[in-house]
What we know:
Layout: E1 4-8, H1 18-34, E2 37-41, H2 47-53, E3 59-60, H3 77-82, E4 87-90, H4 99-111, E5 115-120, H5 123-130, E6 136-139, H6 151-154, H7 156-169, E7 174-178, H8 184-192, E8 197-200, H9 202-205, H10 210-217
Catalytic activity: D-glyceraldehyde 3-phosphate = dihydroxyacetone phosphate
Keywords: Cytoplasm, Gluconeogenesis, Glycolysis, Isomerase
Pfam family, one: TIM
Amino acid sequence: xxxxxxxxxxxxxxxxxxxxxxxxxxxxxxxxxxxxxxxxxxxxxxxxxxxxxxxxxxxxxxxxxxxxxxxxxxxxxxxxxxxxxxxxxxxxxxxxxxxxxxxxxxxxxxxxxxxxxxxxxxxxxxxxxxxxxxxxxxxxxxxxxxxxxxxxxxxxxxxxxxxxxxxxxxxxxxxxxxxxxxxxxxxxxxxxxxxxxxxxxxxxxxxxxxxxxxxxxxxxx
Length: 221
């Protein structure tokens, strides 16, 4: 399986509106040159903008486990799919859900053929998430998010242990590594610990030259 890199644009100004398009173009260009799948997760209002202008995999930052009907203010999986997304993040540390809501979101996403990445913060929650059969779990200790300190160095056992736990539960679920990832050595270390890729954000989005930062990220793979 080739590595998967998912770039979360959060609500950074650099990744808003036309900024989201420019960063998505960098993801496309570096992905094509390297042969590595690089996806982007823009804000909900930018999903259609990015998906319609750039040939790059687009993920929603969140969806809710609701169907059609009276659900004002919720994120409906069908509309995310129709906007051009191919997948979604679920339970990011900045958008936490309870276990029942995580399961409902996974079910809603899968009902529309969307890939699912459930974010977790330790080995135990990674194991619990894997039992719900998402496509990926992304382990990210919250204290390291945005810190510039990669989890693959600060707490490698949480990645190694998560990979082992997931393999015991469902070998079809794959593990991504997140928090503090920004450089080629970080991605290489994450892969050596057993993950199939990374979920990252500020190290690329807020870089002076996001394309150059992405090129460095994939340089050792």
